[in-house]
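User: quick one, fold this
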Amino acid sequence: MADVRVQVCGALVVDRAGVRVDGRLPGRQGRLLCAYLVLNRHRPVPRAELTDAMWPRQTPGNVESGLSALLSKLRVALGPRSISGRGSVQFTLADAWVDLEAAREAVHNAESAIAAGDWTRAWPPSQVALFAADRGLLIGEEGDDTYAWLTDERRRLEELRLRALESYGTACLGIGGAELAAAVRAGRALTESAPLRESGCRLLMRGLFAQGNRAEALQEYHQMRTVLRDELGVSPSEVTQQLFAELNA
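Assistant:
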């Protein structure tokens, strides 16, 4: 078990050997700097990049001393070996466990299992990824859109959430039985979150059809076709049209 565990999905939580230390971080900038280094922990981050990330709109005159002070306080909170480097800085606790990294690995494992048609093996990791992604990223640090990197990371997490939803729904559909209701819920969540994502509509159609709701499944196709026509001026893909033809036969 890793000595250091970091949660960036939801509120930032840093645990060292069973003791939470995130409360020792120096305010909001300390939490954001910690999160930035954790999210980029597999590479050295130039100090100039850290400066831009922490002070994106207006760089204070004492920025170098301010950044040095923040890094020093992070080392106190996380341990002296947690952050290394001068010209470039890196989070160096290689054995640390990070929930976002675990979620990425989980959704990859789920997708691999689905590609092999192994629904029961796909089900657990899809849930692991979904539980993490559903919490959002660095909740409590919303503010405005000052931090472009934070907006980008949240966008990537939302894409991971959609992949996890699709994997979970597909696994439930493959398992069938009592899990069909969960497949339909996942399909509805996908169509609500990403109305232009045809794979979500197809999942919902298949789930409804498997439940015996053929007419409702066909209605979802017509709704998707209307959205695509109105928003993009295009028709559903050949894959989606073929599914409609199969369900309508």
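User: anything notable?
Assistant: Residues 26 and 73 are 7 Å apart (CA to CA).
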